[in-house]
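User: Predict the structure for this protein chain, please.
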Amino acid sequence: MTTKLPELPPLEPKELLGLMIRHFGIREGLYDLSVRFKIATGTIGPKEDRLLPGVMIGISSFEVVPVEHRGPNTLDAAECNPKKTERTRRTPKTEDVA
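Assistant: Here is the predicted structure, written as structure tokens:
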């Protein structure tokens, strides 16, 4: 018996970039997502007598790249992963008992 896994929504490039910025602990600067591809060429076909020239493309990595100017997919690390502020601990109020 196989367990059906829940369907998860796909991530948009900016969402993936935000996750990576938080994962790497980046707190300031502008960043874009870079995708690296590997490309291979060769003959492809269903049978030896029906081979055609072909290309295969694979994703080899995703990278967080610092940039100087905002683009349509740029994220500011200070906005998506702000520094945590120190919270002061409140002392409980005591009641005067007479």
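The CA atoms of residues 14 and 73 lie 6 Å apart.
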